[in-house]
Structure formats: structure tokens, C-alpha cells
Design brief:
The complex is a heterodimer of chains A (639) and B (191). Chain A is α/β, with parallel strands linked by helices. Chain A has three domains: 162 residues, Rossmann fold; 86 residues, Orthogonal Bundle (Helix Hairpins); 352 residues, no CATH class. A seven-stranded mixed β-sheet of chain A has the order 2-3-4-1-5-6-8, sandwiched between helices. In chain A, a hairpin with a 2-residue loop joins β3 and β4. The termini of chain A are far apart. About 1% of the residues of chain A have low confidence. Chain B is α+β, with helices and mostly antiparallel strands. Chain B folds into two domains: 111 residues, Winged helix-like DNA-binding domain superfamily/Winged helix DNA-binding domain (Arc Repressor Mutant, subunit A); 74 residues, Roll (SH3 type barrels), CATH 2.30.30.90. Chain B is 46% helix and 22% strand. In chain B, the strands form two sheets. Chain B has a six-stranded antiparallel β-sheet. Chain B is elongated, with a radius of gyration of 22 Å. The mean pLDDT of chain B is 86. Classes of the chains: A alpha/beta (639), B alpha+beta (191). Chains A and B meet through α3, α11, α15 and β10 of A and α7, β8 and α8 of B. β10 of chain A pairs antiparallel with β8 of chain B.
């Protein structure tokens, strides 16, 4: 083992088992957000240096099964079967052993090199039972490492064990997962006629073929095999009178239950844990909603107050900086280009955007990690049904308040195409932090908080009506809510901070350069007089129909890059931050409403394209543009 | 004749303070007086001096019986996918042809008592049951199986939101299910 090698560890397991905690502990600060080969799904990847090995650690999405009914499941399965990571670390939650082992059995069936990380061992005692990890290891035939990941306990042992398995110092002897006699006979028959050179293990493929897995069926071209599959499945269905995937799942769960009963010993009656007591209030039919509204209100109120406060101080600082800059001995015309072009952009980004986005993502991560977001999904399920969605769709939508991009990508947690489409469209209408900045910077500062509420109300009404409308006309199926409700827990600070940082990083790395380049470009165009022609061209439409100063048309074009640019560009173009001196209150409102809807920003558009293709992305963008112009025209008439 | 008689008895079970005129109005048929007289002769109803019609114990029993048949049939029809209005109409016809024995057998399967098979949605908070079957599309059934709701699994309803989803405890964890989904899961009620 002299030379340096790259080894791949993949972390797999159910949601809410502490996978990301272990991932963070393994990779520390060496994390990168990487794209997966073939699929463009962003996943956390990191490097772990151990002795003289470099280990690439990949955090797979939290899923409950390896069937193909969700994209995340399919991707995970393909990754494990085709990329063949050296070790699959299956993180399981000791407090929910049975359901977690169901997934472990599936990994073993896929013939992955599994090492089990038996996490949250500290909680089993609270729940009133014990788990015999040694015995579990013996039965499963793969290493089981007991862990308390949040305290860092077991991490060393886990890495050591994985390396030993990799080196061959520990041999895996995984449990044989056997089904009933009739099923086994047919699995074996199928295995004997399957061709060589398959992308998956033969036995696994035979099982999936019998279950009627559409993805696996696609691979088989041989007529003889196809006929055999339909004949054997038919026979099985006749014997059991049930769907085969039901029989397989049932038997797998039976094994998981038997295993659990073997290794888990109840010491005393399960005592009520604190989560249940809190849930009585948080999910109460009356107080639950009261608390929900209160916490959402406090969330946004807190963010606005905090943002306002910090933003104020930053303003003073940047005023001072501007003064200092202008007192230097650079030539005055160059000063203007530099400050208006680059300075204003950066100042805008730092003093306006960050103070609002940072606390938002921080608080959101806090809600997510504590488990309250799942409660919100439970409480809002019935409301979401009126717009063709279910409670889980609330999560991507609330993410949209920070940025629409993760919101659109987050619709992946929904089950059907129709639901993904509906949620994606609605997500592009949620007032993201960029739009919030525009609303606060225009309406809030110059007209007062009351008008901010009105603009927000317009937005929410539009979201509701669009949802109602689309749920009536978009064809396809909707599946109801099926969601684990994780126990409430004290959030882990490091996870919350990391999560916040991941989301912020995207804003800083992606948005900042666009803001700076955009405002610089605009300043150049302005200085050389290129903008006048364009403005003259659209001027009649803007003044007559929308009642806006023609100059604003330019800002809307740049707003396609990032919506907050519309505000900063106004400052640059009018050469003042006191916009009330150049625009009427009515114009400010019309302008901000148009900014809300007229186009999903370029990054959101890219996200839509990625999830649904060019056709739908363009359709959504165009409809929103027409809608925004019409709404602007109507407001111009009635205000 | 039999149908009308049974309908009148059922009507009397459902409504209070029924007068002769109410019955005549409700059952707008020519020989209504004849039918009423028959019912009186059979000792199933009595007509008081002020024209009020009341059920005798025998009539009450028969009326309740027919009402129960109606409820069971209506529910059975709804469960097999007949819409609400149609189910009510069809049950209204079929109730007169269902023998008592058939009613008991159906009640054994679709009733409310212990051991009966009902949808998960009809359980209340605190109730326990055992999964019998799931009806629905492939994707939905597979997802529920993956979450551990295989036939034979014990579940307990933790809470029901007023118009919203249910929270159940299954295989040692908590799962939220929308109403539409809970309606497609059949469970055997346990104590």
C-alpha cells in the first residue's frame, strides 16, 4: 500500500438518520458541490485523507427504497450499481431499526459492499430499548459500527472498518435474503436464462424483472427472456393472488422485522418522549395553526428588522467609503465609471442582499433541522390540496423565499410530473430575497411598510389563483401526502451553519459576479450612449401602457440576470438613491409588481430547463412575461 | 307494496313528528291510504287523534333494519367507486331486495365493530388496526409498501387534522398520510 489511491465511499440511507452529520465529520472543510456523472443532480462530495489514502466521500440523497418511483431513488440505484463505489456506508437510525433495515436489505441485494453505521445509539436508551450491535453484525454478515455521530463518537472506527473492508482485512459475508419457495423457484429459473454482461447483479435483476420494474425491463432485449418473465410473473400472481412487488416487499419487511426482534431488547415500556408532548401543541387543530402563523410572522419580521438594522450600518460605512474614494487623485470621469459601475453593484449586493438572505437561510435551516418544517407540511396539506399539491410541496415553496433556484430543484421531492410542474411554476412566483430587496428598496423605503404588505398580498393572491387555475387545466395524476414525520429534536448548530453556508455560497458565487458585471456593462453602455436608441424604441409603450419612465425598460432587461439588479440599476441610471424624487408612488408600485412576475431570473430559467426541458421553461417564462405586462397595464389604469 | 311500506317505515325512523299529511305529501302515490291502513293492521304504526303517525316497537325494528341495509349498501357502493349520488340512489333500490342474512354478512365485512375491515380514514385518533390491502396506482402502492405498510402490519392513528392528513405510527415511526391516500388503505380494526 505504498502508492496513493483514490477510494470512493458513498453514504446511503433513509432521510433523517444523520447522514449529513457523518458526511461533515468525515470530510470536514474539504467539501465541494459536485455534479454526478451523467445526471445533473447536485450532491455534496468531499475528500477525506486517511493515512496515505485519499477518499472521495459522496453523500447520496436520503431515500427509503431503491425502486424507481422517484428520481432520487433511481439515481442512487444507478450510482451504486454502475459506478460501484468501493464502500457503501449505510447509515441507519437505531431508533427506527425496522424501516432502516428494509433499506439495508435492498443494498445487500444489490450486492454493494456495505458497512452499516448504526447511528443515534444514545437515543435508544431514551426510547427504552437496547440494540445488540454485535448480533446484528453476525446476522447481516457485514460490519456494524455503533455511532453517536453528533458527538463524533464512532467516526474513527467507521473509517477504519471501511478501510479494512476495502483492503480485504475484513471479509463480507452478507446474509442470504430468501423469499418463499414459489418465488425462489422462479427467481432461480430466471437467473439461469439471463444473459451475461448485465449492468446489475443477476439475482437482483431477476427479482426486479418479476416485480415489473420498468427501468430494468428496458435493458432486456431477448424475446425468450421477456416471454419467460411474463410467464413466471403471471404464475406467481396466480398463486398469491397479489402483485409480486407486494409479496417481495412484504417478505423483505418480514425479514427486517425478524432481525429487529432478534437484536432489539425492550428494557421498559417506551416512555413518552418530548417530541410527542410538543406535537400535541404544534399539530393541534387550533393552536397548531396559531403557532404556525406566529412563527412565520416572527421569522419574516425578525429577518426584516435584522436586515434593516445591519443594512443601515452598512450604508453609513459605504457612504464613508464613497467619500474616501472620491477624495483620491484618480481622474473624475474614471471615478464615476468605477464607482457607479463596480462600486454600486458590490455595495448593493453586500449592504442590501446579504443582511436579508443570511438570517433567512439560517432560520430556515434551523426549522429544517429541528423537524418543524415537516410539521408545517402536515398542517398545510389541506390548503395545498386546493391548488393541486400536497403538504410536502410547501417545503420547496418556502425555500423560494430565499431563492427560486433551489425551490425549483427542490420540487424533486414531489412524486408526479404534474405536481412537479405545478410546484415549479408556483415556485417561480414566490417573492425570493432578490425580489424582496426590490420591494423593500422601492416600496418599503419610499412608501412605507403598509404598501409592502399590499405588494406581498398581490403576490400571494396571484400564486393562489395561478395554482387554482393550473390545477384545473394541467393534465396528469397527483399523489397525496406520504411523508415521514421525524421526531422533533434540538437542532445541531454545526449542521445548521453548514446548511446556511451552502445556500449562501450559491448566492455569493453565482449572483455576485453577475451583479458586478451587469452593473459595469450597463454603466459602459450608458457612458457611450448606446442605451438611448433602445429607450426611444420602447418609450411609447412604457409611458402609455405601463405609465413608467422609459429608462426603466433597461433595468428590466438586466433584471433577467438577477432581479435585485432592477433596483441597483435604477440607482445607477437615475444617478440617485432617492428614487422618490424621480418616480411617483404609483410608478414605484407598478414597477415592483412587474419586477415580481415578468420573468424568472436567468438562473431560475436554467433550473426550469434542467427539470422540465426547453419547451416548458420557455412556455412558463413567456406566460409570466405576458401576465406581468397585462397586470402592469391594469394597475396603471386602476391606481 | 312492500317497497312503499318499507320506505314509509324508514321515513318514520328518520323523521320526528310526522303527520298523515306529511306521508301523503312525501309518497305521492294514489293508493297511499291503503298502504297506511295495511301498516296499521299489521301493528307496525299507530295513528293518533291529531293525525300524528308513530311507530310501534315492531315497526321501529323493521324501519331500523331497512335503514341499516340502506347504509351498508350505500357504503359498499361508494367503496367500489360509485359516486355519492348514484350510490344513494342505487342503495335506495337495492335495500328492498337484501335479505336479513345478507345484511349481517355484509355488516361483518364492512361494519364498525372490532375485526371489521374499514378504510384507514374511518379510524379515529387512538384507534389501532392491521393493514389488509391497498387500492391504487402502482406508484402509490409501491411507495406505501416501501414505507412499511405491507399487509398484516399493525398501525395506530396518532392524530387526524380536521380537513387534512392523518399521522399514524407504523413500524416504530410516524408517518403522515393525506386523506385521499388513507381512503385507499383498508385495515382490520383492532382494540
Amino acid at each position: 500500500m505504498g502508492e496513493k489511491k483514490e477510494i470512493v465511499f458513498a453514504l446511503a440511507g433513509n432521510a433523517n438518520v444523520g447522514k449529513s452529520v457523518i458526511f461533515n465529520q468525515l470530510t470536514g472543510s474539504n467539501q465541494i458541490i459536485g455534479n454526478w456523472p451523467g445526471k445533473t443532480v447536485e450532491r455534496a462530495e468531499g475528500l477525506l485523507y486517511y493515512k496515505n489514502c485519499t477518499i472521495r466521500v459522496i453523500d447520496l440523497p436520503g431515500i427509503y427504497s431503491l425502486t424507481t418511483y422517484s428520481e432520487e431513488e433511481l439515481i442512487t440505484r444507478e450510482f451504486i450499481a454502475k459506478e460501484k463505489p468501493d464502500i457503501v456506508i449505510n447509515v441507519i437510525d437505531a431508533t427506527h431499526l425496522e424501516r432502516n433495515l428494509f433499506f439495508t436489505l435492498q443494498l445487500l441485494e444489490l450486492e454493494a459492499n456495505v458497512v452499516v453505521a448504526l447511528n443515534q445509539m444514545d437515543l435508544t436508551e431514551k426510547f427504552g430499548f437496547e440494540i445488540d450491535a454485535k448480533k446484528l453484525e453476525e446476522i447481516l454478515g457485514v460490519p456494524v459500527v455503533p455511532m453517536i455521530a453528533v458527538q463524533g463518537k464512532g467516526i474513527e472506527k467507521l473509517v477504519e472498518t471501511c478501510i479494512k473492508v476495502y483492503n480485504g482485512a475484513i471479509r463480507l459475508n452478507p446474509i442470504n435474503i430468501k423469499y418463499g419457495k414459489e418465488v425462489e423457484e422462479r427467481i432461480n429459473k430466471l437467473v439461469s436464462i439471463l444473459p451475461e454482461d448485465l449492468p446489475y447483479p443477476k439475482r437482483w435483476m431477476a427479482i426486479k424483472l418479476l416485480e415489473g420494474d420498468p427501468e430494468v425491463r428496458k435493458i432486456i432485449k431477448d424475446r425468450v427472456v421477456i416471454d419467460a418473465v411474463s410467464r413466471l410473473s403471471k404464475e406467481l400472481e396466480d398463486i398469491h393472488g397479489e402483485n409480486i412487488s407486494l409479496i417481495i416487499s412484504q417478505e423483505k419487511y418480514n425479514i427486517a422485522k425478524k432481525l429487529t426482534d432478534e437484536v432489539q431488547r425492550v428494557r421498559r415500556g417506551i416512555k413518552k418522549y418530548f417530541s410527542d408532548i410538543f406535537d400535541r401543541i404544534l399539530l393541534h387543530p387550533v393552536f397548531g395553526y396559531f403557532f404556525l402563523i406566529l412563527s412565520v410572522f416572527l421569522l419574516f419580521y425578525g429577518i426584516f428588522k435584522f436586515g434593516d438594522f445591519v443594512s443601515g450600518y452598512l450604508d453609513v460605512f459605504f457612504e464613508w467609503l464613497k467619500g474616501a474614494f472620491y477624495s483620491t487623485s484618480i481622474s473624475p470621469s474614471l471615478k464615476d465609471i468605477l464607482w457607479d459601475g463596480i462600486g454600486e453593484g458590490i455595495v448593493g449586493g453586500i449592504s442590501v442582499a446579504l443582511p436579508y438572505i443570511t438570517p433567512f437561510y439560517l432560520l430556515l435551516s434551523l426549522l429544517e433541522d429541528s423537524g418543524y418544517l415537516a410539521r408545517i407540511a402536515f398542517l398545510t396539506d389541506s390548503v395545498m390540496h386546493t391548488i393541486g399539491l400536497h403538504g410536502k410541496a410547501f417545503l420547496p415553496l418556502i425555500l423560494g423565499f430565499g431563492c427560486n433556484v433551489p425551490a425549483v430543484l427542490g420540487t424533486r421531492i414531489l412524486e408526479t410530473k404534474r405536481q412537479k410542474f405545478l410546484a415549479s411554476v408556483l415556485a417561480t412566483l414566490v417573492p425570493c430575497s432578490a425580489r424582496t430587496i426590490v420591494i423593500l428598496g422601492l416600496v418599503g423605503i419610499f412608501l412605507g411598510f403598509k404598501y409592502v404588505v399590499i405588494v406581498y398580498a398581490i403576490d400571494f393572491i396571484v400564486i393562489f389563483l395561478v395554482g387554482k387555475f393550473l390545477s384545473k387545466i394541467v393534465p396528469g395524476k397527483s399523489l397525496g401526502l406520504i411523508m415521514e414525520v421525524p421526531p422533533l429534536r434540538k437542532p445541531t448548530l454545526s449542521i445548521v451553519l453548514k446548511q446556511t453556508w451552502f445556500r449562501l455560497k450559491d448566492f455569493i458565487y453565482v449572483a455576485f459576479p453577475i451583479i458586478v458585471i451587469g452593473s459595469f456593462l450597463l454603466e459602459i453602455l450608458k457612458v457611450f450612449g448606446f442605451l438611448d436608441g433602445f429607450v426611444a424604441f420602447v418609450s411609447p409603450f412604457f409611458t402609455k401602457f405601463l405609465g413608467l419612465p422609459p429608462l426603466t425598460s433597461i433595468t428590466l432587461i438586466f433584471g433577467i440576470l438577477r432581479k435585485e439588479l432592477t433596483l441597483f440599476m435604477l440607482f445607477t441610471l437615475f444617478g440617485t438613491e432617492k428614487l422618490i424624487t424621480v418616480m411617483t408612488p404609483k410608478q414605484l408600485i407598478i414597477y415592483s409588481v412587474i419586477t415580481l412576475f415578468y420573468f424568472p431570473c436567468i438562473a431560475t430559467f436554467a433550473a426550469l430547463k434542467r427539470e422540465m426541458g426547453w419547451k416548458y421553461a420557455t412556455l412558463i417564462a413567456l406566460s409570466e412575461m405576458i401576465f406581468a405586462v397585462l397586470l402592469g397595464g391594469i394597475l396603471n389604469l386602476i391606481l | 307494496m312492500k317497497k312503499e311500506k318499507e320506505d314509509i317505515l324508514k321515513f318514520l325512523v328518520q323523521e320526528k313528528n310526522v303527520y298523515l299529511s306529511d306521508i301523503e305529501e312525501k309518497f305521492n302515490i294514489p293508493n297511499i291510504r291503503e298502504i297506511i291502513d295495511d301498516l296499521v293492521r299489521e301493528g307496525k304504526i299507530k295513528i293518533q287523534n291529531d293525525g300524528r303517525v308513530i311507530l310501534t316497537p315492531l315497526g321501529l325494528l323493521e324501519g331500523k333494519n331497512i335503514l341499516e341495509k340502506h347504509e351498508i349498501l350505500e357504503r359498499l357502493l361508494k367503496d367500489i367507486g360509485v359516486n355519492e349520488k348514484e350510490a344513494h340512489k342505487e342503495a335506495h333500490e337495492l335495500e328492498h331486495f337484501l335479505p336479513d342474512e345478507g345484511k349481517e354478512r355484509l355488516r361483518g365485512v364492512f361494519g364498525f365493530g372490532e375485526g371489521n375491515i374499514v378504510t384507514l380514514l374511518s379510524l379515529s385518533a387512538g384507534d389501532e388496526g392491521e393493514v389488509v390491502s391497498i387500492r391504487g396506482g402502482r406508484g402509490m402502492v409501491q411507495r406505501l409498501l416501501d414505507m412499511g405498510l405491507t399487509p398484516g402490519t399493525r398501525i395506530m392513528v396518532i392524530r387526524k387534522a380536521p380537513f387534512g392528513p392523518l399521522e399514524i405510527s407504523v413500524r416504530g415511526y410516524h408517518l403522515a398520510l393525506g386523506r385521499g391516500i388513507a381512503q385507499r388503505i383498508w385495515v382490520r380494526r383492532k382494540r
